[in-house]
Amino acid sequence: MKVIIRNTYEEMSRWAAEYIIGRINAHNASPAGAIRPFVLGLPTGSSPLGVYAEFIKANREGRVSFKNVVTFNMDEYAGLTRDHEQSYWKFMHDNLFDHIDIDPENVNILNGMAEDPEAECRRYEDKITEYGGIDLFLGGSGVDGHIAFNEPFTSLNSRTGVRKLTYDTLLANARFFGGDFSKVPKTALSVGVGTVMDAAEVLLLLSGHNKARALRHLVEEPVSGKWTVSALQLHPAAIIACDEDACDELTVGTYKYFKETE
Questions:
Q1: DSSP annotation string for 32-87
Q2: Which of 120, 125, 135, 144 is catalytic?
Q3: Which residues contact 79 (CB under 8 A, 6 or more apart)?
């Protein structure tokens, strides 16, 4: 595991964006780029917004193209139409896809309105496999250490499926629904922990003091189903990008170790 510590959220976002841009450009310049697209996993929420802003800027400057990139989003609320103000389909288009040169056919987001949600999840998992897997999965973590919508005690081998959201997640997400807890969907469709772990690389973003406990469990504590993000300890190419505030609960020795090895 590699931990990159930057002073601020903005610096963390810039580092993560440039890392991914480098991976996309290296792939497209290689023989593999002529055979298959770069497959990128993407999250929603506040954590990746800085990265998406950097993607848009780099695309406009001609430093990266997304024409040979296929994306798979981590999750989507069940029961929300695409045009709903809080659907993740709308979030991704408003904050990224409508502003870059990606082919709309290469954008993959789970259908929260599917008549058979379980079948939709199997189709999604199968489509990832058809592309040869995810090259790099960008992600974030909830304050309770969940990754995607894999709440505490979700199997660390789980695949894409329907997830019941915990009270903590519903409470945290109520701010997006005008503070009305009752309006937050109670279930979601989400890639599994195992789906994320199958990616060639995983880059996780954690910023702010409210993510400090999750970062401590991810970096210093044993792997546990209670903190599903901790599964990344077992990934051969996991990178954690964080800001100083997120490091508040790390021991001094751990903090110094990663600052020095970087």
A1: HHHHS-EEEEE--SSTTHHHHHHHHHHHHTTS---TTEEEEESEEETT--TTSTT-
A2: 144
A3: 112, 113, 185, 187
Quick: pLDDT tens for 8-53.
999 999 999 999 999 999 999 999 999 999 999 999 999 999 999 9
Domains of the chain plus CATH, in order, are 2-261 (3.40.50.1360)
pTM above 0.90, yes or no: yes
Active site (annotated) includes residue 27: no
Q: Is 125 helix (H, G, I), strand (E, B) or coil?
A: helix
Active site residue 146: yes
Q: How far is residue 149 CA from its own chain's centroid?
A: 10
* 75 noted as active-site residue: yes
Res 121: pLDDT: 98
Q: What is the C-alpha separation between 191 and 26, in angstroms, rounded? A: 26
Catalytic residue among 54, 76, 135, 151: 151
Distance of alpha carbon 6 from alpha carbon 205, whole angstroms:
11
Task: Kindly name the residue from 146, 198, 201, 243 that is annotated as catalytic.
Answer: 146
Query: Is 173 a residue whose pLDDT tops 90?
Result: no
